[in-house]
Amino acid sequence: MKRVPQKTVTFRFEEHTLPNGLCVLALPDRTVPVVSFQIHFAAGSRNERPGITGISHLFEHMMFRGSKELGPEEFSRIIQANGGTTNAFTTTDNTSYFENLPAGKLELAMHLEAERLENLRITEENLTTEREVVRSERKYRTVNSPFGLVMEELFAVAFHIHPYRWPVIGWDQDIRNLTLQDCLEYHRVHYAPNNAVVAMVGDLDPDRAFSMMEKHFGHIPSQPPPVPLQVRENPQRGERRTIYKKVAQTPAFFAGFHVPPVTDPDIFPLLVLTSLLCHGKSSRFYQRFIKTGRAVEAKVELGPPPFLTMDPGLLVTAVVASPDEDIQMLERDVWQEIESVRRDPVDEAELDRSKKKLRSSYLMSLQTHFYKGITAGIYRIRAGDHSWINRVEPSYLSVTAEDVMNVANRYLHEDNRTVVTLVPVSPRESEKWGEYE
């Protein structure tokens, strides 16, 4: 049967750089009278060093503690009073702030973001307050979560040198020891206009929006750029394996394989590989491990576009055994399933199904102004080019069965693998190791 060429979707962002180095992206879309205004800083855990881990995420909190014009949390109250929503998030490679609001309030978002960027209130009192908030968040999301500490162990063992070895939220002892001087210096270097990308999507006129950006951000001085990260993780030379004992209901294992960065052409076959292994009820892991009741969870994860790491990262396999399942037998069978992809070409029907899932998921995410801005802005930070937003769909379509087998052989082998096995222990046994922070 003759194949019909598939139509792809293209988003035409306009890009403008202010004299102070601030990159501004604008995409008009007047389907509804709302806009998404976002500012993305190239400041994530990748940009930290031992002793100040977690400072990027701490600043996500500090940015809501008030500025010259605004009191604590007043920023959010103003946005909400004008019919909008606001929030922020921190990752390994960026920290991002956004407002989704009525189109007529675009300049309000610009004014508020520029004001707190220029006049953020970085004080000992605010640092003390937010330090304790972040420590509580770490306790809740990581220490007391079923697998948070196991994931920390996986990345700490898989990476020996690169900053990806510590968690985005940071190590507790570093958070406790952050000083006001650490914060002032981090803000000066990383929260500079020449280290940021603004993305705007919605009911707007790009030329007018660029002009308003000049008005509100143009006078903020640039700074000497941060020292480029020179760290390169050495190739792994054999499997790394460790055990983590904690109170748990059932055993599990987490494995990481080193994979290339966001701009590498192998990324898209790897994403197709993760889809055919674990996305949906027709996937191989679901059919063999979930449907049969052997595992509670069995997944393979690599961040979806644009959340792929700037430097080589990890593809993570996470398998949680059912209570009566032998974890060693389960792990052996998971590697057998991956070995079959390395050995045998994927048939065309399975390949097409996996590609369709990824393509439809990507296109559905881009239905919102918010996600269009996030995708273009973060690609601009991580890949250096916002137009990657338009390369994802054709890249999925071009993946072949041979590509999938090649990346499986190149990356999903034992010598490139790190495994952490979760061994459940009783609360009494756990107490002998003391409290974990």
Strand content: 15-25%
Tell me, briefly, the overall form.
globular
Q: If you compute it from the alpha carbons, what radius of gyration comes out, rounded to the nearest whole angstrom?
A: 23 Å
Helical percentage: 40-55%
Low-confidence stretches: none
Judged by helices, strands and strand pairing, the structural class is alpha+beta
Number of strands: 11
In words, what does this structure look like?
- By secondary structure, the protein is of the alpha+beta class.
- Helix content is 41%, strand content 18%.
- The protein is built from 16 helices and 11 strands.
- The chain has helices spanning 55-62, 74-81, 106-119, 124-143, 148-158, 172-177, 180-190, 206-217, 267-278, 284-290, 327-343, 348-365, 369-382, 392-397, 401-411, 427-431; strands at 14-17, 23-28, 34-41, 85-90, 95-102, 196-202, 240-247, 252-259, 295-301, 313-321, 417-425.
- The strands form 2 sheets. A 6-stranded mixed β-sheet has the order 1-2-6-3-5-4, with helices on both faces. It has a 5-stranded mixed β-sheet with strand order 7-11-8-10-9, sandwiched between helices.
- It starts with 13 loop residues before the first strand and ends in a 6-residue tail after the last helix.
- The model has no long low-confidence stretch (mean pLDDT 96).
